Amino acid sequence: MQNFEIAVFEGDGIGPEIMRPTLDILSKLSSAASGYNLTFSIVPAGAAHYAKSGESFPEHSMDVARRASAILLSAMGLPDIRYPDGTEISPQIDIRKRLDLFAGVRPVRVHAATLSPLTIPNGKEIDFVLIRESTEGLFYSQGCGEVEENEARETLRITRDVSQKLFQFAFALAAQRKSQGRGRGHVTCVDKANVFRAFAFFREMFDAEAARHPELTSDHAYVDAMALWMVQRPWDFDVLVTENMFGDILSDLGAGIMGGLGVAPSADIGLEHAVFQPCHGSAPDIAGQGLANPFAMILSAAMMLDWLGVTHDHSGLLADGARLQAAVDHVLARGDVLTRDLGGAAGTEDAAQAVMAALDAG
């Protein structure tokens, strides 16, 4: 039986409340029957830890993350705790840069049509993936922008090294989805190449990678047009790939299509490491009240199992990742155990127990 160490960051605000039941579910799935064992190493980071210690991401925590098989990270950051320059404490961005997690994977799947604000035509299905470059772009100069009395500047950076890896990842994912019957093998580059030379450079490298995959198809879209089309016809898309800031904005639009950030999981993946976390924030206004929605955290854990299964060619992990995603989908589609943000009245524990029951029921 294979053992996998998972570095766990419980986060801030509601972070520990949604992490706890997620680890309970993962522990239940981890078994000799599935052929793997998960061990959890809980390590500190975040705004609350910074307030106590003056460190937002201790080096020991980074060491644990580096040696782990995968990293599970809950919501981080608190609006009232900031660095001296006024910027938010965001270890989730720090870890992306330090571990070269260049591919931010944001699935957009409508689990239950009743949750989406969109009217979905009969026969149409919303199931696409937005891949956001996560280490450079307009976030490159985070915390280092130049501010003068009458002018401020931030630097957008796009490099050949990172972009080529990003596009290789995007086309590989499109091929994987096509083989699974989940997409048509199509990749769309989302940019602003008509205005910025940096994005013309980005598009040029995308086209070079596309030429290496004649079995797949590709096209381009300007980011403003894509924001429109994601609302008008989201069922037309398969894999979208874009720059960091554009991806940050469009991923929240994708979450809105699904019904909210409470059902939006994510991953940040590199060549050697991967982090899995919900897209939403730490919601300190409801922390400690048992009201937080755990679905995005649980779905992020399902993504982790799937990634571990693919990376280690492990059928048990792949099967459990699919089972866990299906269990959450079942609860959302049934609609009788939903948290307040989704229009229901269930608390964190009720929602997690419903997922556990769906797993037990197969």
UniProtKB/TrEMBL annotation:
Span of domain Isopropylmalate dehydrogenase-like: 5-355
Cofactor or coenzyme needed: Mn(2+); Mg(2+)
Organism superkingdom: Bacteria
Keyword tags: Manganese, Metal-binding, NAD, Oxidoreductase
Family matches, as SUPFAM superfamilies: Isocitrate/Isopropylmalate dehydrogenase-like
InterPro entries xref list: ICDH/IPMDH, IsoCit/isopropylmalate_DH_CS, IsoPropMal-DH-like_dom
Native organism: Roseovarius phycicola
Name of the protein described by the UniProt record: Isocitrate/isopropylmalate dehydrogenase family protein
